[in-house]
Here is the input.
Amino acid sequence: DTEVTQTPKHLVMGMTNKKSLKCEQHMGHRAMYWYKQKAKKPPELMFVYSYEKLSINESVPSRFSPECPNSSLLNLHLHALQPEDSALYLCASSQGAVDRGGGYTFGSGTRLTVV
Amino acid sequence: GESVGLHLPTLSVQEGDNSIINCAYSNSASDYFIWYKQESGKGPQFIIDIRSNMDKRQGQRVTVLLNKTVKHLSLQIAATQPGDSAVYFCAGSGGSNYKLTFGKGTLLTVNP
Here is the structure.
């Protein structure tokens, strides 16, 4: 299995809702990432988990809450989002430090719309 | 920190021509670079990478060139095909072993 699987593919949520994005990989990668991508913009790093521990938080608002239940799973819990949070949320994984080679493997993303 | 940007936001080529996509970076401590291809509705896909101790690396129909003196890298695609139409991002790491910073992206359109 050489894929990163993200669910759901599309999500529409109200500003008072609570929802979760899920990401799964079975490549034995020990680092997992959440990126946010607005239309026609590059991906922007949100969080990095290394060996199931949060190692980087790029000053993301607390309405985004990441969770890494085990080495294969990564969740992003959403609460009280704003319309400007609408974007493509990408999950990625890597064997270890990114410069070990091969970069990240990305999932296809969750298209989130906040109404 | 790392800052990576592109010279041209769009590039249009004829099928069969060679394409060259450029990227500049600002952090001289950057030591690893990747080119990604992103098709509409999909996540970025790894194309090729290069380390700072190399000047050139070749893959299948793609070549990445790195000029550390002027902090510039390029992606060359030989015999460009319609399936190559996508947004291409360069990304670099420096300072953090886990963080990749992406450039602005170039939209490549291949005309049949």
Remarks:
- Chain A is about 0% helix and 55% strand.
- The longest strand of chain A covers residues 18-25.
- The CA atoms of residues 53 and 59 of chain A lie 16 Å apart.
